[in-house]
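Input chain follows. Return structure tokens only.
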Amino acid sequence: MPQLKRYSRFEEFVRFNNDFAESDPMLYFFLIKTINRVLEGEEKVHKFFNVFNGDNRIVVLLTTNVCLIYDNRFDEEMIPLLSEELEFAKFIRYQFAGSKKTIDVFFQLHQATYEKQKHRIIYKCSVVSPDFV
């Protein structure tokens, strides 16, 4: 069953999610960049939390400019709890970034009309030919 984890301080959220962000710095580049902007006082943070279901994790960081939603593995059971905590129904206009499948299902839950402004794909090579120099 999905569970919510709230933090009393942003630094606690950062410490807890550091391993997540550093597990794939290219994939979570925007998350890392936004965390650093908040820590440097360049961005105001409004909400931050995690949703868990076993080993599956969703990391949410809501700032003045963007709502970041990243996961390590897609898990549709977590979306209603994410939606409830984020209070999506109160949003009129907002930019979202993060894990595509999770955000798509999140928007479908609310029958939201949206458009993709930019699609970033990152490829990770898992095997290289032994002849490669």
